[in-house]
Amino acid sequence: MALALLVALSMCISVIRATGLAVFWSTLSFVLIALSFATDRLFTDKVQIRTLQMSYSLDGKTPWADDTQRDAQGKPPVVVFVKKGQGYCYDAVFYEPLMAKLAALHANEVQVQYNVFSDFGKERSYNVRSIDGIMLSDENHETVQHDGYGGTTLVPADDSGNYVPPNCPR
Q1: Contacts of 159 (CB under 8 A, 6+ apart)
Q2: 114: alpha, beta or left, given left = phi > 0 and alpha = psi -120 to 50?
Q3: What is the value of pTM for the model shown?
Q4: Banded model confidence at residue 82, pLDDT cuts 50, 70, 90
Q5: What residue ranges do the domains of the chain occupy?
Q6: Nearest CA-CA partner of 167 in 50, 85, 111, 112
Q7: 3-state helix, strand, coil in the chain (%, to 5)
Q8: Closest CA to 86 of 159, 160, 169, 158
Q9: Is pLDDT of 17 > 70?
Q10: C-beta of residue 126 within 8 angstroms of C-beta of residue 152
Q11: What angle do CA 123, 129, 134 make, to 5 degrees?
Q12: Residue 6 to residues 18, 72, 145: CA-CA distances in angstroms?
């Protein structure tokens, strides 16, 4: 079987060489590879920075829950959140310098920047870039070591218990 495939391949190569099609197929292969690279660079892994004013919590209490997930030492995260419709969009970050800065700030809202990643114009993921000027990540790379989580939470839209998922701006 393998011998038959090798013979067939060698016959195809000899026909391509004899008829001058080698230049055509080589050129076509080069063009297809170049188009693949150009498509990858132009349309995939695009980063957009979005800036939002968001409320925050330092004690683990949020409008939708009395307590949030804590780290291994039992410390609460910094939770930044924004109300959208009948729900909330939030991100929680465990990072002591951020906690200390916001504890001294005494403001209701902070500026939060997100890196939003897209392929062919469709958003696929995000990460928190900075909170109140403290850089946490630069595109795909964390600039400081921190843990965290994020998501959305739903609140019933009416008494019937129907939920309407929030459209998060990040």
Answers
A1: none
A2: beta
A3: 0.73
A4: very high
A5: 2-43, 46-154
A6: 85
A7: 30, 40, 30
A8: 158
A9: no
A10: no
A11: 165
A12: 18, 61, 54
